[in-house]
Amino acid sequence: MSISKDDLRSSILELYPEFGQFGLSLDLSYDQEQQAWIATVTKGEHQLSTHLEEQDVESCLQGGECYHFGIQLGRFIRNYCEGGNSCRL
Asked: Options 2.60.40, 3.30.1370, 1.25.40, 3.30.160; which CATH number does 5-80 get?
């Protein structure tokens, strides 16, 4: 399956409105060596990088959830956004 960075980014942003809600940035790159997408979530000085395996990517693109990415995103939000000042808009 040929995957476009823009298509994957659009799918993730559509599935996770928290990016807009908390003002988070998303960057994606493909790591040839690991044959996986690297998603980097940033808010100010805080950053999370995580791998998106092929199964997760396919689910994202088909409108399902990016299960493993969603877990990591939830942890990032819980650590830096909920109840804190880091993600206030």
From this structure: 3.30.160
